[in-house]
Design brief:
Length: about 190
């Protein structure tokens, strides 16, 4: 009898041996946002230490970077089918139930982020139309919020891709795409 696959957090991010690891664009955006946050925080600490002043206007940039980083990370989680799920119901079921729950999860994720993207587009339009500016820097507010609908729609596309892979049988729900479908595209 073979042992069940190891799904621990320390091995989830590592690719299986012998396969190349492809960095997705979501990972790049998340890393760049994190680097920007680190640099802004470091600059704020250094300026506060040396001058007893603060770089308060950087707070709005930090908030925007955190939102972008969160949505980019969610896109990456959707791509790898690593969103939070209730494992008790998922793991104790048959392969058929796991497949159905995977399809339901991907469809619900896709639908939710399409709706969130549409609502976010309305917010961006209102901010653009009424020429709202930020309090600290005085720049147009839509500069920060325009990325929310873009990333919401990207997340919906990634969830739809997972839905399609699960439906075609190329991916077992709960396994990252890199383990379920090797680089050659043939499911194993």
């Amino acid at each position: 009898m073979s042992a069940p696959p190891d799904r621990s957090a320390d091995t989830a991010a590592r690719p299986p041996s012998g396969r190349s690891f492809r960095v997705q664009w979501e990972d790049t955006i998340a890393v760049l946002c994190m680097a920007g946050l680190v640099l802004l925080t470091l600059a704020n600490v250094v300026v506060r230490y040396l001058t007893d002043e603060t770089l308060a206007p950087t707070e709005e940039v930090s908030i925007a970077l955190m939102v972008i980083m969160t949505l980019a990370g969610a896109c990456g989680a959707a791509t790898r089918d690593r969103h939070v799920r209730i494992e008790f119901f998922y793991e104790t079921g048959s392969a058929r139930r796991r497949r159905r729950l995977g399809l339901l999860s991907a469809a619900a994720t896709c639908g939710f982020f399409i709706l969130l993207g549409l609502l976010s587009m309305r917010v961006v339009w209102d901010e653009f139309h009424f020429a709202e500016t930020t309090m600290a820097l005085g720049v147009p507010r839509w500069w920060y919020t325009v990325w929310v609908p873009v990333l919401c729609f990207a997340l919906a596309v990634r969830a739809a891709q997972v839905f399609a892979r699960v439906r075609r049988g190329q991916m077992l729900p709960g396994e990252p795409a890199s383990e379920a479908t090797p680089d050659d595209g043939v499911p194993r």
